[in-house]
Amino acid sequence: MRTSPIPLAISRPKLLLSDRARTLAWLGLMVLLWGLSWPATRIALDAVPPLWLAAIRFGSAALCLFAFVALRGRLAFPPRADWPIVASMGLLQMMTFTGLGMIAMTHVDTSRAVLLAYTTPLWGVIAGWMMHRNAPTRWQLLALAVGLAGVGLVCSPWEMDWSAPGTVMGAAFLLIGAICWSVVILHIKRHRWSASPLALAPWQMLLAAVPLSCFALALEGSPAAIAFDLRLLELLLFIGPVATSACFVISAEHGRRISTFAMSNFTLGVPLIGILASMLLLGNSLSPLFAAGLCLVFAGMLLAAMAAARARA
């Protein structure tokens, strides 16, 4: 007896809807974990020096990803064609952005740190203009003006105490890290991948962990002085294997299933969750001036994502 095609026609959209819902759920979990990693990092910095914490983060995450990729039968040395992107992501995005960010977090409260760190889309407009002669569109110029106005409010003398030791340096480190990340994003868009991003990730994290460990040993001394207890080990487990390696797997597996514009909007949730979690867990305050700057920076990032989507269209 011939089976009616009607059930198949009905079940296929349901399957697609289920796959999309699963993808969005995984990406929502990724954003939540990335956002929560900011206050977790600030708490861990009370016990671990910043460079050692960055080295432990990427060292532990690299070990987890090496094991994960090996179990999937994809562990291999990066092809020569992918060495530039391994170096770019390992040294600029992971080592520089994270190392400078963790040093900055010892001088700037977490809410402001996460906001300044995620100004990356704004600097991408300038980096694309300077490096590839991509003249910004009106939408991009508007995004840049709105976002930088927000950065100006957040970093203004009325909002941050510039006389406090390390405040100016911390804000500068966060912005430098964001600029480095924006350069890496431009490189990622132009790179022709030989191996998959997931297969290259453990090598990038290893490349970040080794120099971070050397800098930490030279500048912060031996890690033997760190008092490891159960609470600290739980924080390190969350910051490294969970919020770094597991979230990278989610991003690699599910991020490609939605549009770049949708992914950009998803990542806007990371600083928002980071700021809210810092207020709840760390007692960070939200002044009217900071709230205004926050709204302007978010508006600028959203306009930058919309401008990129319009350019691709």
UniProtKB/TrEMBL annotation:
Intracellular or extracellular location(s): Membrane
Domain of life: Bacteria
Protein name: DMT family transporter
PANTHER family reported in the protein's UniProt record: EAMA DOMAIN-CONTAINING PROTEIN (PTHR32322:SF2), INNER MEMBRANE TRANSPORTER (PTHR32322)
Species lineage: Bacteria, Pseudomonadati, Pseudomonadota, Betaproteobacteria, Burkholderiales
Record flagged with keyword Transmembrane: yes
A Pfam family that the UniProt record links to this protein: EamA
Organism: Comamonas antarctica
Family affiliation: Belongs to the EamA transporter family.
Membrane topology category: Multi-pass membrane protein
Annotated TM spans: 21-39, 51-71, 83-105, 111-129, 141-160, 166-186, 198-219, 231-250, 262-283, 289-309
InterPro entries tied to this protein: AA-Vitamin_Transporters, EamA_dom, EmrE-like
